[in-house]
Amino acid sequence: MAKVALVGATGAVGREMRRLLDTRDFPLDGEPVFLASERSAGTTLPWKDGEVEVRAISPEAFDGVDIALFSAGGARSREWGPIAAERGAVVVDNSSAFRMDEQVPLVVSEVNPDAARQRPKGIIANPNCTTMVLMVAAKPLHEAFALTDMVATSYQAAGGAGQSGIAELLAQTTELAENPELLRTDGAAAEAGVAAETFSKAIAFNVLAHCGSFTDARYTDEEWKLVNESRKILDLPALRVSPTCVRVPVVVGHAINARMSFADPVSREAALDALQQAPGLVIEDGVDAEGETLAYPTPLGSAGRDEVLVGRIREDLFDPHSLNLWVVGDNLLKGAALNAVQIAELVLDE
Length: 350
What we know:
Layout: E1 4-7, H1 12-23, E2 33-36, E3 44-47, E4 50-56, E5 67-70, H2 74-86, E6 90-93, E7 123-125, H3 129-145, E8 147-156, H4 163-177, H5 180-185, H6 187-192, H7 221-234, E9 240-247, E10 254-262, H8 268-276, E11 281-283, E12 286-287, E13 294-295, H9 299-302, E14 308-315, E15 322-329, H10 333-349
Parallel strand pairs: 1-2, 1-5, 2-4, 5-6, 6-7, 8-9, 11-14
Antiparallel strand pairs: 3-4, 8-10, 10-15, 12-13, 14-15
Helix pairs in contact: 1-10, 3-7
């Protein structure tokens, strides 16, 4: 049994964490502690057959807490994560605040669960949602063929930017759908005619050539996360990653097209065998019962599913050491809330 606090309980990922703590029958010691900003303090959130009052975050709020799940942004995590740990809680943080800290393990529950045991700061980091989804498929292939290089292009849902991203996509979609002729004849006017606040340009009926903010070498912070976090999770500091992160008009569900190269030669059949043994992974690759339609996973089809889905598994046309595949997963579930709760379950198993 564990006393659990949830920081950021009112947010999109926090809502999923609340649901998972209930539906996975997490062995809670009493009611969870729901923490949020001062403006949310005093409100209530549903819990089982009743409600739990939201409290403002404070040092005393962590007294007696065994596990603190954080999903309230990097600034909040950097301020309050160490305080929660000092008060005796194991912190599972969903932000980018501690991911590259050498004293903080970066854990995907199916990929490197043993890393969660080594936490000198009392903090465990949850990876970026795109990296996490991809790692579930990359790990079994690495174990079988020794991964050396990866070209990864992500197609990330609007929901990856939080509830504001979902709201912006839905509002723009409704507005632009009322004038389909403009979409066909003057796309620039359609793009400029809607309010873009969460994203740099209109996301509805559009594809944006970047996610996140541009940083070093004209790559975005989302792209650097794919590079650095993949290396840390797989314990491959020399892994060569070429990333491109794209924003697409999907509510929930990230997709990644990956070309993986290995030290050993790889075949489709051998890759399928390795992937079939992987926990938390479902293969959707083939034809339907009539032998006609190619089966493959989609971001929309992944929404609401715990598993990571993989398809379009095929040998590279020219390199016998390379493989191409398509990986999708729910960025709010496995990409965030589910993995955090699974990490908490790993801590309890200790």
